[in-house]
Design brief:
heterodimer, A: 0% strand, B: mainly alpha, 77% helix, transmembrane (chain A), membrane (chain A), transport (chain A)
Chain lengths: 221, 226
């Protein structure tokens, strides 16, 4: 199982590295999205209030994550998927994709954070909490979006489907993440946000567990 | 489910809810006043919706285990009925909100959660319709149904309790019990819940039977030609 996981994750990374345009595209997507909001808000440093900064940041991360993860089941053609079906168990496939997508989302989130702090200013007071929250948010997004992209890849017109299927499911995670990062912004102590962080972890666990249990049924068809 | 007694019971209970709910005396509370009667309709809608969705999820799980399209029929039709009750729940809630909180839509976690829940289940319908193959539609639909339900639960039961809400039982507002849900209200409220739930189940089973009958006719036609 672990051996399989390791091989599969390695495969994902190699694949991504070979077609660098996809990775570069998604990184550029984040940067241009941030710049777009910067220009359309007409914002100078300090012009955007911290709550707006927070919501903008998370919405941009969500959209880039949707775009980044959407391709995880469509980029490889049918024949190769059949091959994976024969050589690996569905559980290790979904787990490897989730872990890989979590890393990708985390990369996007960090890049977004960097660009945000450079051009819109950095209002975060409690960096540690913010980063922990970023990791949790990336894990939750990737669990949810990977599963949904598996579902959407079975249907036609899956770009629209990907969005409408994933947004409602991802909202609980998004809301908790926004709340925690608001606390991190205000520099509140860890103890005040511990219950929210725990709720976020719990929601992540629920989503991951259901995806893990249900994926074999999606994969079989 | 062919027994008749529960349909009769549903009619009796709903007739009782309508008459007693509108005519019996209700406690006078500030702000709420007479609108507290909406409790019998609005709140009961949500109970019904949750129960119907629960049935649908159970049948989705059964479908994944059995691969029997009959289970899928129940899952989709009970979800449809739940969506109907959810929509009515939102509409009645908006009316009630207009007269107690002053606006049709207020930024309240429970309202938003309900709206998101509806989005989830509309997406479920779109997903089903975009799949052509019958058994694939049933399987992928069942998977999404279970997945969505597991995300829906924290949304309506956990998140609203963490923030302030205008609804009773949240963020320092007293729960139902502290809220003078006195014996008079209970006398109508509990029968109302049972009545509406039975009505929902009735609608669901009717549609399930219709669906199965249609499939039978279809199969007959196909067999005739070949």
């Amino acid at each position: 199982m672990f051996q399989q996981l390791k091989t599969l994750i390695k495969k994902e990374i190699t694949l991504e590295w070979r077609q660098k345009y996809a990775l570069n595209g998604i990184l550029l997507y984040v940067i241009s999205a941030v710049f777009l909001t910067y220009l359309s808000f007409g914002a100078r440093d300090g012009n955007i209030s911290p709550p707006t900064w927070n919501s903008l940041y998370w919405i941009i991360i969500l959209f880039s994550a949707v775009n980044a993860v959407a391709k995880s089941f469509v980029q490889e053609h049918q024949g190769r998927q059949l091959y994976y079906y024969m050589v690996a168990s569905p559980e290790s496939i979904i787990l490897s994709k989730m872990i890989y997508n979590a890393l990708l989302t985390l990369l996007l989130a960090l890049l977004g954070y960097l660009v945000f702090s450079v051009i819109l200013g950095n209002p975060i007071a409690n960096q540690g909490l913010f980063l922990v929250n970023l990791v949790l948010g990336a894990l939750g997004f990737s669990a949810c979006l990977t599963m949904v992209s598996g579902i959407a890849s079975k249907a036609s017109n899956n770009a629209t489907l990907m969005a409408i299927l994933s947004f409602p499911v991802v909202i609980p995670i998004l809301l908790m993440a926004i709340r925690v990062s608001k606390n991190a912004m205000d520099g509140l102590d860890w103890s005040t946000s511990s219950d929210k962080v725990l709720t976020l972890v719990a929601i992540n666990a629920i989503v991951t567990a259901t995806a893990y249990l249900l994926f074999p049924y999606v994969w079989r068809s | 489910m062919k027994a008749k007694w529960w349909k009769v019971l549903a009619i009796i209970l709903l007739a009782y809810t309508l008459t007693a709910g509108l005519l019996l005396d209700v406690p006078r509370l500030p702000i709420l006043n007479e609108t507290i009667r909406a409790l019998y309709f609005h709140v009961a809608m949500w109970f019904t919706m949750i129960l119907l969705l629960l049935v649908a999820v159970v049948y989705s799980i059964r479908y994944l285990r059995s691969n029997d399209l009959k289970d899928d029929d129940v899952a989709i039709e009970f979800t449809n009925a739940a969506i109907l009750f959810g929509s009515i729940g939102i509409l009645t809630g908006m009316l009630w909100a207009r007269f107690t909180w002053g606006a049709f839509w207020v930024n309240d976690p429970k309202l938003n959660a309900a709206a998101i829940g509806m989005l989830m289940y509309f997406a479920y319908l779109v997903l089903r319709n975009s799949l052509v193959d019958v058994s694939q539609r049933a399987r992928i639909g069942a998977v999404y149904n279970i997945f969505a339900f597991s995300a829906f639960l924290p949304l309506i039961f956990v998140l609203p309790r963490l923030t302030d809400s205008l609804h009773p039982g949240n963020g320092g507002n007293p729960g139902f019990n502290a809220y003078d849900l006195d014996s008079q209200l209970r006398m109508v409220f509990y029968p109302a819940i049972i009545g509406w739930t039975l009505l929902g189940a009735w609608i669901g089973t009717l549609r399930v039977r219709l669906r199965r009958a249609e499939r039978k006719i279809e199969e007959k036609l196909i067999n005739q030609v070949s």
